[in-house]
Amino acid sequence: MSKVLITGMGAISPLGIGRQATFESSLEGRCAVTAAPPEISRWLPNLLVAPCACPDALLDARCAGLDRATRFALVAAQEAVEEAGLGAHPADARRIGVYVGIGFGGAQTVDALYTRFQENVAQGSRNPAIVHPLSVPRMMANSAAAMVSMKYGLHGPSHTYSVACASSAIAIGEAYRAIRGGYIDAAVVIGTEAMLTPGAMMAWNALRVMAKPDASDISRSCRPFSLNRSGFVLGEGAAAIVLESEARATARKQAALGELCGYGCSSDAEHLTAPSSAEQVVAMRQALDEAGLEPADIGYLNAHGTATDAGDVVETQSIRSVFGEAASRLPVSSTKSMHGHLIGASGILEFVISVMAMNQGALPPTATLDNPDPRCDLDFIPLTARRGCDVQAVMSNSFAFGGSNACLIARRVES
Amino acid sequence: MLEEIVKNYLVESKGKDPVLFDTPDLQVSALGLDSLDMVEMLFEIEDRCGFQLPDPMRYMQMSFADMLADIEAAIREHNNGELPELKL
User: Fold this and answer.
1) Is the residue at B83 inside a domain?
2) What is the strand order of the sheet A34-35 is part of?
3) A238 pairs with which residues across the strands?
4) Given 3-state DSSP classes, what are the helix, strand and coil percentages for chain A, each rounded to the nearest 5?
5) What integer pLDDT is reported at residue A115 of this predicted model?
6) Distance (Å, rounded) from C-alpha A363 to C-alpha A390?
7) Are A369 and A131 in contact (CB under 8 A)?
8) Which of A56, A189, A346, A414 allows an S-S link to A342, with CB 3.0 to 4.6 Å?
9) B50 to chain A nearest CA, in Å?
10) Residue B13: which pLDDT band, with cuts at 50, 70 and 90?
């Protein structure tokens, strides 16, 4: 089976435009959490969000009508594709796929459509039934995959995975398997999400999982693994990676940023939202087995760490089960403390951060962890980044509503 | 007014060359629009006039001027013979 190399990465996140800006902010412990905009706070005054810069300035004006998630996807893909030197319309385009993860495809388009309908009904001056004819192609979940495959002329599979919080981790894993299995030679993998809209936020609020504002510093309201955690904060944005078979990358002398070497996935088959440790453990063990690594070989773990009581405690137990003795020496952090939970984009954003942490030997912190929950007793890199670390391999966990678990492992590639 | 709305849309959103519209007897088929482009273009009018124009692909067989005349007639038919101000 072919080795799978990472040859390009990109991000547009609440922590910055571009993967470097995102990673640097994460090392600084900068938290991007803020109060929701007026159209949301009018109804939900305590709701928090982690918004991302508008992607429009980085795109062709003709992209303006696309769903916000698709626009984020195009920006992240552009950075990753440029770094990988992939170029548009490559000669082997049929051997290159586009794999996308998104949780709530078309959320912004759907919300805008309903808002317009309601406003026109209320005003009575316009026909509410007249809506934009591209509403469907803009709101369909595979809109981002379609736009990216069209932009770069990629004729391999263009697949979209909607697996809630694990969407883009699954997209990475499935692209990896397709390359390893010889079905394709390369893939542009993207995770994207944009649902900081009134309708979507009201739905999230109803679940009672949203963080409350921190009285002293609103930006530090998302507190994974803390005793005073109060839930998670939704973010938006996208990240992208280019995966390539070792043979393809070597043939064109393309430097690699790391090797994607392990993927595990499993389903709890137990509860719609509550996590369960047993299958998280299975996913992590699958990934380690596939990578041929021992727990002690992992030098950093980016936890799913959403800052819900159940999620944090169960993940801590799962990590202890898998890592055993090595758990006490394993640095773990939840970067969601800074960039919030990007749902469909979170898996890939955190994977990009993990690979950068590995290559730079600098581990981003759990930036808000000043009051640890004793039930979460791992080394969660509290408050400040740790630099000068020798990291040979990293793990990134994504555990979704619906009980889908995904675990990814990357290791260093010596240049 | 109608002509300006359609022309502006085709130039600004679809990247058509403004010179194209100086062509005498310009045919809609010469604009290089597919069916999705066509419904998108008509939405610029429908959004302002509040009803859906029927059978959009029939415009492909018309000249640009005839298409505009047909759209204007449809708008007048919905407005007791008047052409209302087409604003958003």
Assistant:
1) no
2) A34-35, A48-50, A234-235
3) A12, A192
4) 40, 20, 40
5) 94
6) 10
7) no
8) A346
9) 5
10) confident
List, in sequence order, the alpha helices (H) in chain B. Answer: 2-12, 35-49, 64-78
Residue for token pair 């020798």: A390
Which residues are bridge partners to A99 per DSSP? A159, A189
C-beta separation of A346 from A311 below 8 A: no
Strand-pair partners of A101 = A161, A191
d(CA A290, CA A383): 33
Over the stretch A153-180, which tens digit does the pLDDT of each residue have? Answer: 999 999 999 999 999 999 999 999 999 9
Residue A210 phi/psi, 5-degree rounding, is: -85, 140
Measured between CB atoms, does A132 come within 8 Å of chain B?
Answer: yes
Is the Cβ pair B43, A133 closer than 8 Å? yes
Q: Contacts of residue B11 in chain A, CB cutoff 8 Å?
A: none
How many domains does chain B fold into?
Answer: 1
CA distance linking residue A196 with residue A406, whole number of Å: 25
Chain B residues whose CB is inside 8 A of the A127 CB are: 50-51
pLDDT in tens, A172-229: 999 999 999 999 999 999 999 999 999 999 999 999 999 999 999 999 999 999 999 9
With beta carbons under 8 A apart, name residues in chain B contacting A129.
52
pLDDT at position B1 = 85
Q: Residue A408 is which amino acid?
A: L
What is d(CA A280, CA A396) in angstroms, rounded to the nearest whole number? 12
Buried b (16+ CB within 10 A) or exposed e, A360-387: eebbbbbbbbeebbeebebbbbbeebbe
> Per the domain annotation, does B45 fall within a domain?
yes
In this prediction, residue B62 carries a pLDDT of 97
Looking at residue B70, what is its pLDDT? 97
Per-residue model confidence (pLDDT) at position B29: 95
Strand A393-399 with A237-245, pairing: unpaired
Q: How far is residue A242's CA from residue A154's CA, in Å, rounded to a whole number?
A: 13
Q: What is the ipTM of this complex?
A: 0.88
**Does any domain span residue B62?**
yes
Residue B66 lies in domain: 2-15+27-78
Residues of chain A with pLDDT under 70: 415
Distances (CA, A) of B73 to A81, B31, B80: 50, 22, 11
Residue A63: closest C-alpha in chain B? B13
B88 within domain boundaries? no
Q: Residue A204 is which amino acid?
A: W
Residues in Cβ contact with A53 at an 8 Å cutoff, skipping those fewer than 6 apart: A12, A16, A17
